[in-house]
Task: structure prediction
Amino acid sequence: MISGEKLRNIKDMFDAIFRESPKERVMVKYMEGKTVKEITAHVLSKAIDSYSAWLTRQQLTEGHIGIIGPNCYEWLVSFSAVLRLGAVAVLMAETESPKEILEDVAQTDIRAVLYAPSVKARLAETGLMEKIPCVPFYFQEAEYEREGKQKTGQKIEAGQKVRLLIAENHRGPEDPACIIFTSGTSGTKKAVVHANRALIAGQCNDIIGHPFTSQLAVLPFHHLAGFNAVFNTWCLGGTICLAEDMRYLFAYLEAMKPDYLFAVPAIANVLVRRLKKADDYGASLGWNLRLLNCGGAKFQPEIVETLVSHKIGIMNCYGASEAGGIGFAWDMALDCVNTIGKPPAGLEAKIVDGELVIRSDSVMLGYYKEPEMTNEVLKDGWYYTGDLCYQDENGCIYLTGRKNNLLILSNGENVSPEELEAKLNELELVSESMVVAENDLLAAVIVVDELQETVQTEIRKQIDQLNRSLPNWKKLEKVYFREEAFEKNAMGKIIRIRGNV
Result:
């Protein structure tokens, strides 16, 4: 495991990883058709250096550099090179429209964009290619070092080693390293700035406390949880397996055989349905799954029961883009399903007026160019999460809702919609739900598989029964049905905007 205590910046972290890794250690696996491709530490290190040298020649070694593209090996090399050089990487969602790309560039003062081939057409629509440098991702076939030599007129002999000219990284622990966008569950986009110190702390730790050899990366890399899973795996000595297209999730599990998966509950549901007819670890399916780390929503007990019965450990994780890579990670059991547990080493936590407040080295510097918004959530080094919670007699913390989501009724009562949604989601015919206030009354919007009258009638009966156990001010007075799932963020949480209802 790489220690982050004496590391100044991300370049130092990469240097430590490659210094302590045998050249033939497999760092990355990915699928090319039905073939598993492997990238060794030597090849990955050379790729990052080569692209860093190429960016140096393009004079893209400082300032804010946008990165946009799907999860892939080339994304990881491009991102790593930007961090190695000391520029600030601004991570943009691969699915963004031309309008959203322009908004990102303006909001965070991006001076150049690195892009994947799949984004080129949309990027061209923005007109940015005529205004700022827009250059393609690293691609494996390019010989960047030879290109540099040839441009200087130097002769290259066969087999000759080429010295790379890479700009020095003088960034310190508190200097910005990365900007990620988060909308949380409100739909309002914020630019979260993380320092080198925060990224190092987030990667160089063993929060989960479970040994593993390889992790399947399924979360989007432009999200903190996505790239954090990759770097943390490298720091812990493991291999990252790329799930580049979620339609082939089962094929990845079978071909690359990762023993660890960090995902959202929706993926856990898919796995459990397939596991019910399999043996331990999913071995009869060709899998080798030993541990699932999941976060973003509450769990149904049957999910935990199925995983545990198949000898697959399950952890409930909790964190936020603003909190960085150090968050809660708790081993779940049937008698303790939905707690986020106790804070791990390196994380302090307390409850202030019912709100969870945390502090660690991985907490953000703030929101880019938003000092007032930053001061609302960062106070004396403590991050005010906005999550409402309580602590039981054993010190375990349970989330009950979002402070900003509270529905304030005219009688002065505050209702946490998440509390009621958890009860609704336990009903057999309910896929998911959202509780809203309508003319001072509580209404439930229910997602069902089919809008059949018999289904709606049965759910209404069950809600009537639920209401009998609730105080008057928490009763659900109206019920609406829909087939379309709610829009969600990268961690699977419902985005609470009016258009989502």
